[in-house]
Amino acid sequence: MGGRADMGQFGSCFSLAAEMKQKGIAPTLLTYNTLLRAFAPGGFAPASLAILEDMLSMGVSPDARSFNYIIEAHRTEKSSTLTFILARMEELGIAPNATTFTLLITRFVAEGNLEVSLQHLHAMKARNLLPEVVAAQGVIVLAANQGYPRLALDLVASFENESVRKVENSVWLACLYSSAANLYAEGVSKCWYTLVADFAVSPDEGLCTLVLHTAARNGLPNLATDALRVLKVLDVPWMEYHLAPLFEAFCRAEQYQEAFTTLAIMRQNAIHPAPTTAFPIIQLVKQRPEMLDELWEVLNQMNKEGKQIDPSATCALLVASVTTQPLSRTLADYNMLKSWGLGPNTETFNIFVDACISAGNVGYGELAFKQLKEAGMTLDHDVYGRMMTLHLSQEVYDDAFLYLEVMHGAGHIPARHLYESLVLRCATAGDDRYLLVLDEMKEFGHIPPPEFVRHCSELHGSGRAAQEAALARARAEALKDSLGHPGMDGVAQKFIETGGLSGVQIPDEK
Predict the structure, then answer these.
(1) Closest-CA residue to 244 (of 204, 196, 281)
(2) Residues 440, 359: Cα–Cα separation, whole Å
């Protein structure tokens, strides 16, 4: 019967049991356990309970193994059924063993029920039973997958301290992934060095990238450097999104020269820093504006030592200056670059002129434009477009038309948004030239929508009315100033100036 039970031939097992009954052979505990073993893998829950009742009716006391088979047969049944089985075990005075708890834990792990799995794990420890490795690993991986890396690592430490067995590499990988996904620095460091240093496991690129993000957020440049080393081992070419976290890690660790050097290393490896690569340094200055002087001094020292300064570093500090300092200070920082041999370029010009546009400072903007021309830099469409926008921020905006003509002369076709800004500015001011700009837009293929034209017409009417009202007020003020008190002749004016009726007695009327 045992051999047939191992093969899951429960029908043959029942036939043998019936034959034993016909021959008057009383079944033993082994007989019933063999029958239960035959039914357990197939999940025949009702049959297993029927066998239990038959055992009890025959005066055969079940043991923990009997109930283990019954629990295995109920592994896909509702939790309430398992509660009934455990209550029956307690009623019969049968203590669960390690296998019992393993079956319960693996059943609830498969269901994704972390809370109940932990309850059974703690109940197991309360009975001084060591969890089997499959049960412990199941709970650990479930905790990691559900976003509890700290709990998962605590369970790993507890299991390995109490058992001679060690968890598998796959468990450490699950904990590493969970820790990195949740930016849990302590967990990432523990899992990373256990896998990479102790077990010589090389995580894949995706996991390395997650580790890099954690290193960046927590200021761990050594961890970031090791993750980059593993990427090299995997023959994964470095990209901007690999090295940008190293820059952030150095910034958060307050190793600013190393951070700026990272940008130069990127450039040396044919990796162009993105506009967002140096963003962490801008965030740092926003939080601590007093750091700006220190960071400029770091670049100054690098320049004195002949070290390469990447343009993205100066652009980042210039943005930080624009964000936190007066425009006059930003102008000083902008001009300082020239003394380092890093004269004005279109990137730094755009940053500075955008600040001038926000402040409405035409003088500084024109100065920067002049310096850019003198440096021999190519004046592209965006340069002229920014100068147009700068002048459109003023009350008198005629120079915006001048830059529009210069753009034409340089062979640039003004972008649609520049034309629209110019049209709106003219219409708002009641300037009839908005119609000419609309016509020019059409000539260059920028067909304005009818609703835009209608809106501009309405703005022009309102602007013209406001303009006429302002002109009328100005004329009235001028007339008032020239006549003193409008509406009075000279005699009346002199009468008031000499005191009027003051001191004169007026006789009563009779």
Answers:
(1) 281
(2) 29
- Counting every residue written for the chain, the total comes to 510
- Which of 463-467's residues contact partners 24+ apart within 8 Å by CB, and which partners? 463/427, 463/428, 463/429, 463/430, 463/431, 464/430, 465/430, 466/430, 467/429, 467/430
Q: Which residues contact 239 (CB under 8 A, 6 or more apart)?
A: 271
Nearest CA to 366 out of 423, 381, 322, 374 is that of 374
Enumerate the H helices of 182-290 as residue ranges.
185-193, 205-218, 221-233, 240-252, 256-268, 279-287
pLDDT of residue 469: 56
pLDDT per residue as tens digits for the range 115-154: 999 999 999 999 999 989 999 999 999 999 999 999 999 9
15 or 357: which carries more pLDDT confidence? Answer: 357
Report CA dihedral (140, 144, 149, 153) to the nearest 10 degrees.
Answer: 20
Q: What SS3 string covers 276-344?
A: CCCHHHHHHHHHCCCHHHHHHHHHHHHHHCCCCCCHHHHHHHHHHHHHHCCHHHHHHHHHHHHHCCCCC
Residue with tokens 């063993």: 97
Beta carbons of 132 and 122 less than 8 angstroms apart: no
Q: What is the pLDDT of residues 9-51, one digit of tens each?
A: 555 555 666 556 666 677 788 877 777 777 777 667 888 888 8
For residue 1, the model assigns a pLDDT of 45
Query: Alpha-carbon distance 160 to 394, whole Å?
Result: 72
pTM of this structure: 0.78
| Three-state DSSP class for residue 349 | helix
> What HEC string does 201-213 produce?
CCCCHHHHHHHHH
SS3 at position 471: helix
Q: What is the DSSP letter of 370?
A: H
What is the reported pLDDT for 474?
Answer: 55
Give the span between the Cα atoms of 313 and 301, in whole angstroms: 14
367, 334 Cβ separation under 8 angstroms: no
Taking CA atoms, 493 is separated from 70, 81, 255, 488, in Å, by 118, 110, 80, 6
Report CA Rg, the chain.
Answer: 42
Measure CA of the first residue to CA of the last residue in the chain; give whole Å. 147
Of the candidates 157, 97, 103, the one whose C-alpha atom is nearest the C-alpha of residue 130 is 97
Q: How high is the pLDDT of residue 15?
A: 61
**CB proximity list for 388: less than 8 A, separation 6 or greater:** 400, 403, 404, 407, 414, 418, 421, 422
Are 322 and 362 contacting, i.e. CB atoms less than 8 angstroms apart? no
